[in-house]
């Protein structure tokens, strides 16, 4: 043995002894010069967006452009871990940072053969090198790594050290960590790896650039097979298992990272970043948990892609699915093909303001039902009519004559809807929508007109989901919830309609004719088509979920025959099928719902005559005569609703507040400033209701309570 080799061997052994014993003046001085122990606190990871169960939806690169995804040992295939330890550091769980046996063996191999055969580095030393890169690779650097390894072992558990290796090991290019490599090379999480895949992930970090499967697939496969045969020789793998794994095809490129709910993920990560900047802090391991359900998200993204492809012509599809009970968004498809430039894939079309066509009509009817202006069985004339210079026409340019309100809404007739809106007032419709959380848009300096009811205002798909969610929730509007923590800080619910009116609208919409080859009577829904065939809509709900669908071109160009019933409704019904749950029926009717045929309704409700109805006076004006608009005279009202503490909604029109309400001459509400009141526990039987305003004017009705 030459003198130089003896010198090198002594240096290795001396350094190892110092590091193992962790004592003496030289070590103390070395520790002082090295500074604080790196434990991974300053490592920044890729922002991750996960679903409600923690499943990955979309990762992002770090600020320096790396895919660096954290991974705990329990999130990685146990077979991979055992292969990694057996190949890289078989005494990992027994040593304290350095393996003297491996160090001596590595030094002897180098001295005897004249070149490095094995490095002798433990997994902990590799972690130290990853945390504190030392590009020169001198003996002094090696000694520093050894010292750092001992320090790290004194501060972290074996599982924590293994976690740092799994997160930081290099895999070629901008891939760092086992999870990033598994997603990029195999398109799967590292929880369940084949033997060949596990061996590939063991082999790559030793020479990540020269063995990159996307650039040197042959070298990658050869390295993988060497690992398999070596582990078979050590008895870690059965020889037959290892040989079979060598025959498995190796990856020859990189797969795209998951990009589910892409638009929501991007928005939430951006919001979190803004909050961090405002708070003057940064998250080293940012994980955004959403309310999205990954399986449903995948299903609806596939559905949107299938239908958009079939429609062709640059058409895209957006879908929003919401849980009725909580308001949590279960799926959000902002468009088709995030990287599809022809379909403007990176634009969130669910947040684009578009003409909603007829999808706002149910809210016109809901206001009319709430005000006592109409009942689902009230007759209305569908005939040519002019409102100033505005002359609405039906979609098919035909008129159906006298129909019930129920049929007028189910058939989406335009003239009855405009007649109702003319009596209610467009401003009131817009105000109710805003109070429920929607944000309808109008041209600058424009005031709401009657055309609003037929699509003359911009509305987002998420707005429509919010409004129809309120219908499904007995008229109670909730803001959409995107993250679990938002449940506790969500805004207080607002009321879109009273319960009876909301139920009546849902009861009408569930009878709307279904699209071709679909089963009706299970989903309350409404379609819409904007002027010029630019937007097709379908929004509906059952007892458990609300789904909203938009179809059209991102640039707003017209598409021949793009009609809500033909283009959007089939997607809506298919989306409910893909939710996978049995259809939940709508809620039973609440108290206050009047069940009657047209001939059984009070005379004022049998036919809609706008000119014969008193208009609602401005608050406090008292100019219009006082009348009871609900319940109407002679009505038979269901008040039990299956609830022991039932209540009856009361509504007055005209008069001057405050109001006093009496039942059979006994006061039930005194000094009510609003024109709406509630009669608690009204009981059953016949009753005479009266209301007295501030000027002493009275109005009365006779009703029957069941």
TrEMBL record:
Keyword Heme: no
Domain Glycosyl transferase family, first and last residues per copy: 65-229
Matches recorded under InterPro entries: Beta-lactam/transpept-like (IPR012338), Glyco_trans_51 (IPR001264), Glycosyltr_51/Transpeptidase (IPR050396), Lysozyme-like_dom_sf (IPR023346), PBP_1c (IPR011815), PBP_C (IPR009647), PBP_transglycosylase (IPR036950), PCN-bd_Tpept (IPR001460)
Catalysed reactions listed for this entry: [GlcNAc-(1->4)-Mur2Ac(oyl-L-Ala-gamma-D-Glu-L-Lys-D-Ala-D-Ala)](n)-di-trans,octa-cis-undecaprenyl diphosphate + beta-D-GlcNAc-(1->4)-Mur2Ac(oyl-L-Ala-gamma-D-Glu-L-Lys-D-Ala-D-Ala)-di-trans,octa-cis-undecaprenyl diphosphate = [GlcNAc-(1->4)-Mur2Ac(oyl-L-Ala-gamma-D-Glu-L-Lys-D-Ala-D-Ala)](n+1)-di-trans,octa-cis-undecaprenyl diphosphate + di-trans,octa-cis-undecaprenyl diphosphate + H(+)
GO cellular component: outer membrane-bounded periplasmic space
EC code(s) of this entry: 2.4.99.28
Pathway connected to this protein: Cell wall biogenesis; peptidoglycan biosynthesis
Residues covered by the Penicillin-binding C-terminal domain: 621-703
Annotated Penicillin-binding protein transpeptidase domain residues: 318-552
GO biological process entries: peptidoglycan biosynthetic process; proteolysis
Keywords: Carboxypeptidase, Glycosyltransferase, Hydrolase, Multifunctional enzyme, Protease, Transferase
Gene Ontology MF term list: carboxypeptidase activity; penicillin binding; peptidoglycan glycosyltransferase activity
NCBIfam families: PBP_1c (TIGR02073)
Entry's family note: In the C-terminal section; belongs to the transpeptidase family.
Name of the molecule in the record: peptidoglycan glycosyltransferase
Species this chain originates from: Labrys okinawensis
């Amino acid at each position: 043995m030459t003198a130089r080799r003896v010198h090198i061997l002594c240096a290795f052994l001396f350094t190892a002894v110092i590091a193992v014993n962790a004592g003496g003046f030289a070590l103390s001085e070395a520790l002082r010069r090295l500074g604080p122990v790196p434990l991974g606190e300053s490592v920044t990871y890729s922002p991750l967006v996960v679903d409600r169960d923690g499943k990955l939806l979309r990762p992002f690169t770090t600020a320096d452009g790396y895919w660096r995804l954290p991974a705990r040992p329990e999130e990685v295939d146990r077979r991979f871990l055992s292969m990694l330890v057996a190949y890289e550091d078989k005494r990992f769980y027994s040593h304290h940072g350095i393996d003297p046996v491996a160090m001596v063996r590595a030094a002897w191999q180098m001295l005897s053969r004249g070149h490095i055969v094995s490095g002798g580095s433990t997994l902990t030393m590799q972690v130290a090198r990853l945390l504190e890169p030392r590009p020169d690779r001198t003996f002094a650097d090696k000694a520093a790594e050894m010292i750092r390894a001992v320090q790290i072992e004194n501060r972290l558990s074996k599982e924590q050290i293994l976690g740092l290796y799994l997160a930081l090991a290099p895999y070629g290019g901008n891939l760092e960590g086992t999870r990033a490599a598994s997603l990029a090379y195999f398109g799967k999480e590292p929880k369940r790896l084949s033997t060949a895949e596990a061996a590939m992930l063991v082999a790559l970090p030793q020479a990540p650039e020269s063995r990159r499967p996307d650039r040197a697939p042959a070298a990658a496969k050869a390295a993988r097979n060497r690992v398999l045969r070596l582990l078979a020789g050590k008895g870690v793998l059965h020889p037959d298992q290892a040989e079979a794994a060598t025959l498995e095809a190796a990856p020859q490129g990189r797969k795209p990272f998951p990009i589910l709910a892409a638009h929501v993920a991007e928005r939430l990560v951006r919001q979190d970043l803004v909050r961090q900047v405002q708070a003057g802090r940064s998250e080293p391991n940012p994980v955004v948990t959403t309310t999205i359900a990954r399986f449903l998200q995948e299903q609806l993204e596939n559905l949107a892609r299938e239908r958009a492809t079939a429609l062709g012509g640059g058409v895209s599809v957006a879908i929003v699915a919401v849980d009725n009970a909580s308001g949590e968004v279960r799926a959000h498809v902002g468009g088709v093909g995030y990287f599809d430039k022809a379909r403007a894939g990176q634009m969130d079309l669910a947040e684009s303001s578009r003409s909603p066509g007829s999808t706002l009509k149910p809210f016109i009817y809901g206001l009319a039902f709430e005000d006592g202006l109409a009942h689902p069985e009230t007759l209305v004339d569908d005939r040519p009519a002019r409102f100033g210079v505005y002359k609405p026409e039906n979609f098919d340019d035909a008129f159906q004559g006298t129909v019930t309100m129920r049929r007028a809404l189910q058939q989406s007739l335009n003239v009855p809807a405009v007649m109702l809106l003319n009596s209610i007032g467009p401003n009131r419709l817009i105000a109710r929508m805003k109070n429920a959380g929607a944000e309808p848009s109008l041209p600058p300096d424009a005031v709401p007109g009657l055309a609003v009811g037929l699509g003359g205002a911009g509305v987002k798909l998420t707005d429509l989901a919010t409004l129809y969610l309120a219908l499904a929730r007995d008229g109670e509007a909730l803001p959409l919830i995107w993250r679990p923590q938002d449940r506790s800080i969500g805004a207080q619910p607002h009321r879109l309609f009273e319960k009876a009116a909301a139920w009546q609208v849902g009861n009408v919409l569930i009878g709307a004719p279904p699209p071709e080859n679909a089963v009706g009577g299970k989903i309350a829904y409404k379609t819409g088509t904007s002027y010029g065939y630019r937007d097709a809509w379908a929004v509906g709900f059952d007892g458990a979920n609300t789904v909203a669908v938009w179809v059209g071109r991102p640039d707003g160009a017209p598409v021949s025959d793009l009609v809500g019933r033909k283009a959007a409704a089939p997607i809506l019904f298919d989306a409910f099928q893909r939710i996978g749950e049995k259809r939940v029926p709508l809620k039973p009717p609440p108290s206050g719902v009047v069940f009657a045929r047209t001939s059984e309704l009070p005379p004022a409700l049998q036919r809609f005559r706008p000119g014969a109805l008193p208009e609602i006076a401005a608050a406090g004006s008292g100019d219009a005569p006082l009348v009871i608009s609900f319940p109407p005279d002679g009505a038979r009202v269901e008040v039990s609703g299956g609830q022991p503490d039932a209540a009856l909604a009361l509504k007055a029109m005209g008069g001057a507040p405050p109001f006093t309400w009496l039942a059979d001459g006994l006061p039930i509400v005194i000094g009510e400033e609003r024109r709406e009141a509630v009669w608690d526990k009204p009981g059953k039987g016949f009753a005479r209701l009266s209301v007295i305003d501030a000027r002493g004017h009275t109005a009365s009705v006779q009703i029957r309570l069941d």
